[in-house]
## 1
Amino acid sequence: MASHQEMRANPRTLRVFAAAKINLFLHVGERRSDGYHDLESLVAFADVGDELLFTDSVESRLNIRGPFADGLAGDESNLVSRAAVAMSKRFGPARGAHITLEKNLPVASGIGGGSADAAATLRGLSQLWGTNADMTTLREIAESLGSDVPVCLASVPSWMEGRGERLTAIPNLPGLSMVLVNPAVAISTSEVFAALKQRRGVGIRRPSSFATVDALLEFLQATTNDLEPPAAAAVPMIKEALEALRNTVGVGLARMSGSGATSFALYKDAAHASAAASAISRAKSKWWVRKASFYSLNANQ
């Protein structure tokens, strides 16, 4: 498991890692009166992600760079900017920061890049400003920013329910290697939900633990991602990516994450994952392909 410590480069700067979020399964319930759907998901995190650099400053500014910078606006609509404004309102309008976002994850790709960036902003500014804010306070702010922000704030394997606000940490989730594939296409979450026709619904029995890799894979085989069919219908390349992953040697499970278009495959050993990532990268040079491992913020602090 790679180490991505949140650390100060000097007394006035802080570097924070924003791990990719992986929905190992995702079941969707009925639409609620508040417009959200009830969800149920086992969420893990990968040791690939975005990075944010915070420099203490009176004024606030966001700079975006990296391979996927062109897909994002650096204005007040960006989730990083919204998170910074929310922190400033909570802890003092005189506080600011220069924030540099290194955008390494594809945009609108189902692996929580924007949510992870917002969550990293909450953690980073809290530490930079010395707020001593507890997790309950930061969770309240996270919930106001988006359904995936609370789970990304903790960045530990979690059972997620409600619209994303009810979280139960899953300690000692067995480690697996994985390959992440995005076929170089973005997809709208709202459009995927709008096209959803069949759903598994919520209420699956939550295991007390996953003692072994085989137990985890066996459980996941009995689950689904309810958003995979409508997303794949809208973007046929998702089916192509899933087929490529399922045809690799040693794959234990291949599935789309979130609302897509990123898919993942799980492997018991790193060698098979590395070989799969290399093979898909050679065959599909324009796709985003990354070999990764499970990540937990608690294990990297």
Note: The chain has two domains: 7-169, 177-299.
## 2
Amino acid sequence: MFNFVTTCVGDYSMDYANKSFHMMSRHAGLNFKSYCITDRPHELTSNITPILPPFNVKGWWNKLFTFSPEMPEGWIVSLDVDLIILDSIKEELEYCFNNIKQIAAYTDAINWMNCKFSSSFMIFKSGSLNDIYQNFLSNYSKIENFPGGDQVWIAPQLRNILYIDEKFPNFKRSLKFDLSIKDGNYLHIPKTIESGIKIIDFHGRPKPHEVQQIPFIKENWL
């Protein structure tokens, strides 16, 4: 059993959070309870328990609320709502639950600002990163425009990161940086991808709703 937590605020439609729940339901292979940090709780499917942000913060900083000791007890699996799950991640989840010392994540596709850690997918025990949360509460007014955003700010405060894709190389691929070819301002997105990829990470634009005509996106983002 684990707690699946998404964050859906700002410009993201609540369709993103609902589809994340459906994808996790198809591919987790384990029992979980679903939560969403959101300012629009009435738009969530009844299977998802809303969590109202304690105070207003910008965009990705809402993910820091997952570190709160007030979150549901047990394992937290935090997933950005613009990720697409393609296949079973049961093996990867069980490996993390059995081997995490502090937190599990995957590597950033481009080591953004020399940061290997990506906050798009995180697994940790509820309340175990309260020191980071308290630092966030005390300093948000100073860091809201922090260069590189939340993951660049979080990474130096982590002591032991289990990188999932170092154990499972096909765990995730970036649509923009791994699967597509850039030609000037045009991005050539393939119609098919190799089997075995578990998660597609969307960096910046396009977002899933903008390319949902691509077959492997259309078949899985639902």
Note: The longest strand covers residues 117-125.
